[in-house]
Design goal:
5 strands; five-stranded parallel β-sheet; alpha/beta; 208 residues; 8 helices; 13% strand; binds P1-(5'-adenosyl)P5-(5'-thymidyl)pentaphosphate; 57% helix
Length: 208
């Protein structure tokens, strides 16, 4: 049996991660692997409670936000990700630690060093094997989610905040190009699906 893998999906708001997740599930079905789908912040009961605080508090200091992201991540890793991987089940997570580099390190301008420190402390060896970055200009992504109704606390941030996030993701993907597949998420849903399928076909030998 091949090693269970942790696959993560990243991108700015409205990039189409949830839509991409469905394509990834179909690919893994065709590879005949067992997997679970989960998300951050959240993915298990305590982490979901922290998600509510993160997304719907009126105000949070940037450092509190960082600490809560990693607190929820720790519950998620200890209670969901590690046990699944240990029993040979692949994990697909809609966002993971790279989101903290992009949003808290880049968007909130806390810098990458403190995120790296938390990454070593909380995530340790439970690193993603493959990360799909849904790359999109923030204006397009935000336009897509506009019709969804009331924006959460983070979605209400300035366009400059989202530009810093996009740039931070692109920098990380460039630095760790072996782990990343960068998908042009501004294209049609059909074209995005094809690009994701190609990216997985390229990685199949490494992952399986
Ligand atoms: N966060 C998270 C941090 O700050 N730090 C962290 O460490 C972590 C883990 C999570 C928030 O928390 C932050 C980031 C986020 O702000 P969330 O609700 O999970 O909040 O938000 P998102 O993950 O951003 O989810 P979204 O639903 O906003 O975006 P998706 O999932 O990328 O987009 P999706 O698939 O729902 O698509 C949005 C719309 O666009 C359409 C879809 O049909 C949908 O209507 N669409 C397309 N339209 C045209 N062309 C395409 N190619 C399309 N693809 C999708």
């Amino acid at each position: 049996m091949s090693k269970a893998r942790l696959i993560t999906l990243e991108g700015s708001e409205g990039a189409g991660k949830t839509t991409a997740l469905k394509t990834i599930c179909k690919i893994l079905d065709s590879w005949d692997v067992d997997y679970i789908c989960t998300r951050e912040p959240g993915g298990e009961p305590t982490a979901e409670k922290i998600r509510d605080i993160l997304l719907f508090s009126e105000h949070l200091h940037a450092k509190t936000e960082l600490l809560l992201m990693f607190a929820s991540r720790n519950e998620h890793i200890q209670n969901v990700i590690k046990p699944a991987l240990a029993q040979g089940t692949w994990v697909i997570s809609d966002r993971y630690v790279d989101a903290s580099y992009a949003y808290q390190g880049g968007g909130r301008e806390l810098g990458f060093d403190i995120v790296k420190w938390m990454d070593l402390f909380i995530v340790g060896e439970v690193q993603a094997d493959f990360t799909v970055l849904m790359d999109i200009e923030p204006e397009i992504g935000l336009q897509r989610i506009k019709s969804r109704g009331q924006a959460d606390r983070i979605e209400q941030e300035s366009i400059e905040f989202f530009h810093r996030i996009t740039q931070a993701y692109r920098n990380k993907a460039q630095l760790e190009s072996n782990r990343y597949a960068v998908i042009d998420a501004s294209r049609s849903i059909k074209q995005v699906k094809v690009a994701i399928k190609l990216a997985f076909a390229d990685k199949k030998d490494v992952l399986l």
